[in-house]
Design goal:
This protein has 198 residues and is α/β, with parallel strands linked by helices. It has a single domain, classed as 4-Layer Sandwich (Purple Acid Phosphatase, chain A, domain 2). 23% of the residues lie in helices and 23% in strands. The strands form three sheets. A five-stranded mixed β-sheet has the order 5-6-7-10-11, with helices on one face. Strands 1-2-3-4 form a four-stranded parallel β-sheet, with no helix packed on it. It has a two-stranded parallel sheet with strand order 8-9. A hairpin with a 2-residue loop joins β5 and β6. The longest helix has 17 residues. InterPro entries: Calcineurin-like_PHP (IPR004843), DNA_Repair-Maintenance_Comp (IPR050535), Metallo-depent_PP-like (IPR029052).
């Protein structure tokens, strides 16, 4: 099964170009036979049900693509009940999820906790497996490009956490600038610039 990732779409009715960016992604995935899109947080700019109808229409239009969504710090309380679409699942709790031949640990944003804490809770279930982590927060290693719109640290993940728990790959949302895909820990970035600096 082919799987794609995105994050930080920040859908908002005052910014139709963001819906357009997601529409482009879904169209391209269908054209390439990709069956699953994992959204690593902040699909919506804020918790506002008026943002959902256009998204739901898009999901119905692209029903061959399964959308697996973890909430981010901008939309921490979204849930399956907000959408009711067959191809949309929201993971509001840390979940170990097999998809095809791969295993993913999906960690939604949660304030005042680190991703390492959430990995530790699933350590027994992860033992002996090869798996990937998908989360939303700040990777605390090396040079970190700060997010000027959100000062502070959000759901940190440290290099020690990665070394201790051993995910094969880490895919993160929260920082809007993508990092090189060959790294072990990557930010997928935002599919559309959210301001002039992006």
């Amino acid at each position: 099964m082919k799987i794609a990732f995105t994050a930080d779409v920040h859908l908002h009715t005052e910014h139709p170009e963001r819906y357009g960016a997601l529409e482009d992604i879904l169209s391209q995935l269908e054209a390439e036979g990709v069956e699953c899109l994992i959204v690593a947080g902040d699909l919506f700019d804020k918790q506002d049900p008026s943002f959902y109808p256009d998204f739901k229409r898009m999901c119905r239009k692209h029903s061959s693509v399964q959308l697996l969504i973890i909430p981010g710090n901008h939309d921490p309380n979204i849930s399956d009940s907000d959408f009711g679409e067959e191809n949309v699942r929201v993971f509001s709790e840390t979940t170990l999820l097999p998809i095809g031949d791969a295993t993913f640990l999906l960690i939604p944003y949660e304030p005042k906790v680190g991703m390492g804490d959430k990995m530790a809770e699933k350590a027994a279930a992860l033992a002996g497996q090869e798996w990937m982590l998908v989360g939303h927060g700040d990777y605390m290693s090396g040079v970190r490009e700060p997010n000027p719109h959100e000062p502070g640290i959000y759901m940190p993940l440290t290099r020690a956490d990665v070394d201790r728990h051993g995910p094969r790959q880490v895919v993160l949302g929260h920082i809007h600038k993508a990092t090189p895909p060959e790294e072990r820990v990557v930010y997928v970035g935002s599919p559309h610039g959210l301001d002039i600096s992006e």
